[in-house]
Every structure is written in structure tokens, then in C-alpha cells.
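Sat 14:20. Reprocessing the chain from the morning session after the first attempt stalled halfway. Input below, unchanged.
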Amino acid sequence: MNEPTKRLAILLLTALLQACGGGGGDSAPTPAADACTIANQRQSLRDFMQEQYYWYRDMPAPDERAATMDAYFQSMLVRPVDRFSYSQPTEDYQQVFTEGRRVGYGYTLVWSDMARTQLRVRNVEPLSPAARAGLARGDRIHSIDGYTPADIAAGLLPAVTTPGVPRTFTVATAGGQWKMLTVTSEEYLLSPVAAAGVLEVPGPAGGAKVGYLAYNQFVTYSREQLWAAFLEFAQAGVSELILDLRYNGGGSVGVARELASLVGGAATASKLYAFLRFNDKQAGSTQRLLFEMPGATAGTPLGEGLRRVFVIAGGGTASASELVINGLQPFVDVVLIGEPTYGKPYGFVPFELCGTTYQAVQFESLNALGVGGFTSGFPPTCTVPDDLDHQLGDPAEARIRTALNYVATGSCGAAAALRAPKALPLETIGDPWPRGMLLD
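Finished this time. C-alpha cells:
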């Protein structure tokens, strides 16, 4: 066994001992309980970071005075290079990434001005209590439980992480009508595929049929929906595709490769999709990921692969979403519409320790041309602000309209002449999807 493999085996063995148990009476604590003392957790985390962290050479000494394990973890990160690593309760991680559910209301709000005085609903989960109550994309927030946008900006709105908590929204719709809604938090199912359908562009010889897919998270439980959408596109005879990743913060590398393979079809099958480079201690973990032959559209024109794809993107488009963009660019004309992406060419292998999952950067991704390092994000071909006055999938929505105009005319068109005077705040309020590129 070589040294990197031996070190990894030791770490994996350590991880297997992390479930916290308990002793009884005067008996000695079990090894599992002992492993979860603060001292042992810190030692395990420090060992993990020194072996696995991408920038371990530049890692500062941990702050032994840190009050929490998260603060201890944060003290080892290489700033400002690493703005990506984070930790979260393992239960939260498993709910979103493996179980497909979340506790909350199912809405995401965004500031529509730099001064943070105007809040609008950016997205509502289709199966959430917020959706059933009538909260909709584009609604303007007057108050939540009596807290004004200024109060919310100041952090006064309490976080809710348990079911059964009612919350009252006073909002104005995009059309100007006022409504008051009461929503009770609950555990609800997530819908990574937010919208899918076929749009038409008029023109000679019947025009063009355009597939539209709004996809919010790369997770394994979305595979069936993804394949169903592409099968619908193939049966409809689409020749163009709009892939809406504006709110997709990433997720599974494997599912991201599947989606890219569905776009590239037979034309990219077995070609290099991504090169995942780990630190020098973990050189044996380096991977070359190839495009797959997609079975969902085999035998159809779509299955042969698209020459062009329109990707709707913004500041929330990150990680595995950018992996798809970067992986396709050597082979497919990728037309980006919206705003610059987040800029995260790095990924994680989740590390669970005593009820907390640590996502520390462990690898960098590059495409078949060796292109990586896109920490400033990918710039749009057509700059178009997010249009909260229309729903996702509506051909009149500004970014979708721009893509359809590009199909018809070969240019960005009038919608892209609309410019946001300044970049708006990236942070969201509510139940946003996390960012991440997770090797599974």
C-alpha cells in the first residue's frame, strides 16, 4: 500500500469511528464516545485537513481558542482563496442531497436593490407549503410576521428549522394586488426539475422547436425527471435547448456528467468531460471523467448530440453547474445568457464527523482543453437581468426571450440591451439550495 493510500485508509477508518455512543454508570466510555470528545474531533479534523485539503501547504495553524467546531474548521481555511468550504449538520446534508426533502416553508427571497430595501420572491418550491398558500415568484414582500425588509436586512427575522411554525406574509403581486398569506413550516419534498417543456420559434420550414429545462440541483434522485425531460424533447424533435441553471448551486459530479452527456449525445461519448486534480498527497485520487452515451435519447436526432446549447446563468450558478458549462465548451457552442456565474472550479468529498459534515475543497476541475481556474465565473454572451415579473418557463421572461431571439436571429436582441446598473446582492433569504460540487 503506497503512502497516500495508507493515509486515506487511516482517515476512512477514523471516519467509521465517528458515531457518538455513550457509556453507563462507572464503566469506561466506548471508543465511539471517546472519538467524539472535542479534543478528538479537533484532532480528526486537523488530520483530515492536513491530508485532504487542496491548499494544505498554505493552511494556517488552527485556532485552539475557537468556541465551536465550525469556528475551528474555519480557522484552518486559506483565505481569501478559499471562499467555498463550509460545514453543516449531517442531517441537513442528508435531507437535501440524499433524501430530497427539507424542513421549512419553501421560498427564496432576493434583494432587488443595492440598498437592501426591496425584497422579492425569487423562487417557490412546487411541493412546498409556501406554494400551496399562494406565494409566487415575483411577489414583493411588505412584511413577514410583521418584520419589514429593513428588519429582515438587520437579521431580525428568526430562523425556523422545525415543522409546525406558522408565518404570515404580507405581499404585493407582480401585478400590484395585495394579499396576506399564512404558511406553516413542514417537511416537504424538493423538486430539482422546476420546469420543463417545449417552446416554439416561428420561422421558415416550420421554425424551430426548443427544449426548456429549469434545473435547480444536481442530485441523484432527480435522474428520472432529467431523463423524462430529455425523452420528451427527443420525441418532440427539438433542435435547440435552453438549460436554465440560474439558481443551480451545484451538487453531484456524476449527475452533472449525465446532464452534459445528454446534451452532447453520441458526438461527445467517451471524450474527456472533466479532469479532477487532487493535492499531491492524494495524487492517486485524481480522476479522468468521460462523457457517457446517453440511453434516454439513443436513436433520435437529439441523441446524436446538440451543436449548441443556451445556458441561463447568474450569480447563483455555481460549482457542478459551472462544471457542465466548462466540460461542454470544447465540444458544444455554449451561449450563456444572464449574468456572470459564481466562479467555483473546486469540489469536495464530504467528510462526516460526529454529526457534522465538512465540505473542504479537495480537488480542482479542468476540461478537455485543460481549462480551469474560473474563479471569476463565466461571463455571459448576452447580459440580461433576472426577470421576476415572469415565471420560469414563460417565453416572455427576459432571459428565455433572449435565448429564443438568438435562435431566430443569431443575436442577443433587444432584451439584452436591458442592463442592471450594478450587480445586486447575491445572498438569498429563505430556503436556498446550497452550493457545492460533490464527488460521489
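The chain has a mean pLDDT of 88.
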